[in-house]
Amino acid sequence: MKMPWPSRWMGVVFLLLVLLVSGCFHRNGQTFSTGQETGNGTSVRLAEESPGYVAAKMPARHQLPAQAEKSAGSQPTTDLASTEHRIQTAVIALPEHYPAIDPLGLDKREQELTPIERFTYVGLIQARPDQMYAPALASTYQAETRDGRAVVTVRLRPGLKWPDGTAVTVDDVRATLETYARPEFYGIWRSQLAAVEGASTYRARRANHISGIITDRASQTVTIRLVQEDRSFLPILTAPLLSARQLTGKDMQQLEQLSRAGQLMGLGPFQAQSVEAADWTFTANPHYYAGTPLLKALQVRRLPADRMEAALRAGDVHMAWVSPKQAALLGKRLPAHLRLLTTEAAGYHFLGFNLSVGETADPAVRLALARALPPKTIARDRFFGMGKIADGPLSPLSFAYKPQPLQVYDPKRAARTLAEKGYSKAHPLSLVIAYPQDAVRERLFTAVQEAWRPLPVTLTAKALPADEFAAYVFGASPYDLYLFGWKDGPDPSVLSRLWHSREKTGELGFNASHYHNVEADRLLDRANRFLPEDERKRLYGKWQKLFSQDLPIMPLLRLPDSYAVAKMLHGVETNGATNPFENVWKWSLGE
Prior knowledge:
It holds the Pfam family SBP_bac_5. It comes from Brevibacillus fluminis. Keywords: Signal, Transport. The chain is an alpha+beta fold. It folds into three domains: 60-94 and 271-287 and 295-344 and 563-589, Periplasmic binding protein-like II (D-Maltodextrin-Binding Protein, domain 2); 100-260, Dipeptide-binding Protein, Domain 1 (Dipeptide-binding Protein, domain 1, Alpha-Beta Complex); 347-558, Dipeptide-binding Protein, Domain 3 (Dipeptide-binding Protein, domain 3). It is 26% helix and 19% strand. It has helices at 5-21, 65-70, 77-80, 170-180, 199-203, 244-247, 252-260, 308-314, 324-332, 363-371, 375-381, 411-420, 439-452, 466-473, 495-499, 518-527, 533-550; strands spanning 89-95, 125-127, 133-135, 138-146, 149-156, 213-216, 221-225, 270-275, 279-284, 297-303, 319-322, 338-342, 347-353, 388-389, 429-436, 457-464, 481-487, 553-558, 562-566, 569-570, 588-589. The strands form five sheets. Strands 8-9-10-1-11-19-12 form a seven-stranded mixed β-sheet. Strands 14-18-13-17-15-16 form a six-stranded mixed β-sheet. A four-stranded antiparallel β-sheet has the order 4-5-7-6, covered by helices on one side. A hairpin with a 4-residue loop joins β6 (213-216) and β7. The model is unreliable at 1-86 (pLDDT under 50).
């Protein structure tokens, strides 16, 4: 039986908290836990050539050169690249706890598709690495204020077709949005629909359609009227566009079954054929709007992290996610048939100060503690050389990014400041630091502890399981410091989720630093409106300066994702972004 909406919503919020504290940044906010040690907050034991590892072998003509040479009776390596034996299926290995296919977002924590889901599903618009939105299935989109009313207008690309060859129409857009707005729908895409005029009447079953969604079949245009001007509505337009023919006449139980089986039609380059527990298979969509994929199929295998390297060395997969430790060690002894690919980090880790009570409410104390932390050393030495310094709460890729000077590492000055405040070894500054129990936070805690050891500071660690940490910190329990991580998100407006004063802990808010600056709030509110890019950039620039001066957090590092890629798999690139699968329809296999 479904939970009532308020209880279910609170459950979703709780799951989001667990995600955010898990310490693993994978693209689109999805996390996985391997049970061993990695630099991303999961963990891994670097696998040597393990005789106990048994892979599901591909036929010889589908193997990589290293594997084909080992297989008795297999084709010679040179024949693998010949026309008649050219491989048409690429095999990708991901951690075994990589999130399941969930286009309806029934179990999601964030309003984004995973990179694998994007093989099959596409929205009207898509988030870019620079935190701007770009048209996807829409040829154009516009968010504006018209006659005092907030309006979003999208026009479908001409000639769009579903994988079965039937035309995509504005009726599909209406059916999709109204499915996400059903009163019995509890997926992650639900929340923004409340901002549409007439949504509450529709949810109360007093109308057959949402009056604020206006479709024009002749021009293939959809106009959406909002109750207020708010950019946080836009992520709903990145949700999968679904087929009205599949949605009509089905209850949520039927749609949930289709969703979990990967059988809801999408408009991405590959369609899910099988999404069994460990292995997923996708076949090319001949009607993909950007062009016919070069590969005929993709296979995704979810493997234990300690088997990733063995699978790569054995030639069982063409591409695999590897932990920071694996990436560092593979970089020193990389097999000849592989190359390493590293993406930009999709989020950052930081040390947070509690500004509401205690000694960390004093700006001078926060500044002294920050000056005693060496972020370069932490990023380099604690995370196998794979970490990068974080210099603020915005991604360096963001259009709004305006880096502020980091606190200069000066432990002697920090010690003088604390001495002036009356602290000494006999009467130290006693602080409680809370953090979730995972490998990345343990490493960060150890780094902080060692950096402050020469200071008159006593740290009491409160390491908690992720769910207990969420309840402790976001339930407004007493603490002075906390270690945390946050995803960059599709738009800078997500900054409000963490740093606006209205996001109070104990009231389902995420502002664990209890940061409160009236001018900072005003800048965030203003920047969240439908404004030109240059104006938003100016507002966020001013906000970043204020935030840096107030020092509610000390940014520590960003951890990128790394992938080992077979050289025979062509077209895999990141272009300085966070998702290596962005151009998967252009991938090919050959020499």
